[in-house]
């Protein structure tokens, strides 16, 4: 009898975990940002003003862990260079999204590392959002290979205000958003590898590849965990 009870508890627990991972989040990403960003900005600005970079990073990590993870990423319709549009909800697989600005030069080895990672991981949708006007974004987009979807957004363009306000004007760039196939935020990380100008190109690519790969592993592991739970149950 005890064994039966334990089996029931185990199965129920696994179903609960799986259900929580795919259920509709209680808040949107934009709502979470609007509600919590001002407090974070004030506290982090003070930390960076006095040179307490460790606390600044701690505050960012706390914002992500306590407020943003688990929120529902907005179902944006992204403008693409080829004039076709990409609606986020139409992507039926996990998303690795990175933001850049057309006027800001990426770190050494950063884009080649992303290109390599995207080419190797077809089960993940790689999306880059370039903040800037279409012409500027078009030039920037040429740096990426065909394995990466390139979108762009500018505050003067129709329907782009929310993207710019909730992403560029809050978490900045470059920022990585790990999003599952249900548009639920898995994690958010800022920056890339710190590569001095004298760093050999091959080494710079390897450093960035390692960082991006670690971030991507969260999406891959989550997807694998869901598959295992479904098989178990």
Strand and helix layout:
Layout (H helix, E strand, L loop, with lengths): L1 H21 L6 H21 L3 H16 L8 E4 L4 E3 L7 E7 L8 H11 L4 E7 L2 H8 L6 E6 L7 H8 L6 E5 L5 E6 L10 H32 L1
Parallel strand pairs: 3-4, 4-5
Antiparallel strand pairs: 1-2, 1-5, 3-6, 6-7
Helix pairs in contact: 1-7, 2-3, 4-7
Please give a handful of descriptors for the protein shown.
oxidoreductase activity, globular, 233 residues, Glutaredoxin, antioxidant activity, Thioredoxin_domain, alpha/beta, single chain, disordered N terminus, 7-stranded mixed beta sheet, AhpC/TSA
Tell me about this structure.
With 233 residues, the chain is of the alpha/beta class. It has a seven-stranded mixed β-sheet with strand order 2-1-5-4-3-6-7, sandwiched between helices. It contains seven helices and seven strands. It is 50% helix and 16% strand. Helix 4 (110-120) packs parallel to helix 7. Strand 4, helix 5 and strand 5 form a beta-alpha-beta unit. The longest helix is centred in the last third of the chain and has 32 residues, at 201-232. It folds into two domains: 26-71; 73-233, Glutaredoxin (3-Layer(aba) Sandwich). It has helices spanning 2-22, 29-49, 53-68, 110-120, 134-141, 161-168, 201-232; strands at residues 77-80, 85-87, 95-101, 125-131, 148-153, 175-179, 185-190.
Q: Spans of 5+ residues with little confidence (pLDDT < 50)?
A: 2-22
- The strand count comes to 7
- The structural domain count equals 2
Sequence of secondary-structure elements: HHHEEEHEHEHEEH
CATH architecture of the largest domain: 3-Layer(aba) Sandwich
Gap between N and C termini: 20 Å
- Give a short account of the largest sheet: 7 strands, mixed
Q: CATH homologous superfamily of the largest domain - what is it?
A: Glutaredoxin
Computed over alpha carbons, the radius of gyration is 19 Å
Residues in β-strands, percent: 15-25%
The first-level CATH class name of the largest domain:
Alpha Beta
Structural class: alpha/beta
Q: Which fold name is given in CATH as the topology of the largest domain?
A: Glutaredoxin
Overall shape: globular
């Amino acid at each position: 009898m005890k064994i039966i009870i334990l089996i029931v508890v185990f199965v129920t627990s696994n179903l609960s975990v799986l259900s929580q991972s795919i259920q509709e989040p209680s808040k949107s990403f934009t709502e979470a940002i609007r509600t919590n960003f001002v407090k974070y900005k004030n506290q982090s600005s003070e930390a960076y003003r006095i040179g307490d970079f460790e606390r600044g990073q701690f505050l960012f990590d706390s914002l992500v862990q306590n407020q943003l993870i688990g929120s529902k990423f907005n179902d944006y319709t992204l403008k693409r260079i080829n004039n076709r549009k990409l609606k986020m909800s139409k992507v039926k697989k996990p998303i690795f999204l990175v933001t850049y600005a057309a006027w800001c030069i990426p770190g050494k080895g950063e884009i080649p590392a992303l290109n390599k990672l995207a080419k190797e991981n077809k089960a993940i949708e790689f999306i880059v959002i370039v903040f800037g006007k279409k012409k500027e974004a078009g030039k920037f987009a040429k740096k990426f290979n065909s394995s990466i979807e390139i979108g762009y957004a500018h505050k003067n363009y129709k329907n782009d205000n929310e993207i710019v306000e909730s992403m560029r004007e809050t978490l900045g760039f470059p920022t990585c958003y790990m999003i599952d196939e249900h548009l639920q935020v898995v994690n958010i990380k800022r920056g890339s590898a710190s590569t001095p100008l004298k760093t050999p190109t091959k080494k710079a690519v390897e450093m960035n590849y390692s960082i991006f790969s670690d971030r991507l592993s969260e999406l891959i592991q989550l997807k694998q965990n869901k598959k295992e739970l479904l098989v178990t149950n």
